[in-house]
Amino acid sequence: MSTSTPSTPSTAPTVAELEEQERRLTLPRFTHDDAWTLGSLLVELAREREAPVAIDIRRGGQQLFHAALPGSTQDNDAWIDRKRRVVERYAASSLLVGTRFRAKNTTFEASSRLDPDTYAAHGGAFPITVKDTGVVGTVVVSGLPQLEDHAMVVEALTRFLTP
Predict the structure, then answer these.
(1) Which InterPro entries match (predicted)?
(2) How far apart are CA 57 and CA 140, in angstroms?
């Protein structure tokens, strides 16, 4: 019997599953108020789980939301920046980018030719995609194992989109 919850996945999702998440989690719009609502939802989820995470939401180059919960450190902010840059460069979640490289029997670090001090294809950064517009920003969680960071973002976006 599996004891995994939405925040603690037991296995890594496939490329197809990650691509489906991105299609499903397309937003009708994304405003400053939406960033606050989504960020507050992530803070609520993290507090419920006593998760030592930092959370960052951006639209374009503007940071619209940032929170650092107890137990998080400035290293989490550095990871946020590195994972966010992957989303900005590839217009896909940082976990999906890393998974695509692994599916080709390589790694992002070995094959992307990008500086690993600047880019990290580890789970936790997700594109904010607006219908009929495309990727407009990022939402990032850092502080848990990468699958849990990613799952927390997916759970929050799913709840955000549920009326």
Answers:
(1) PduO/GlcC-like, PduO/GlcC-like_sf, YBR137W-like
(2) 6
d(CA 88, CA 78): 15
The pLDDT tens digits of the residues spanning 75-91 come to 999 999 999 999 999 99
Instruction: Sketch out the chain's domains with CATH numbers.
Output: 15-161 (3.30.450.150)
d(CA 95, CA 86): 9
56, β-bridge pairs = 66, 140
Whether pLDDT at 1 is above 60: no
Mean pLDDT of 30-40: 98
Identify the pLDDT of residue 17: 97
Query: 92, 96, 97: which is closest to 108 by C-alpha?
Result: 97
In single-letter form, the type of residue at position 56 comes to D
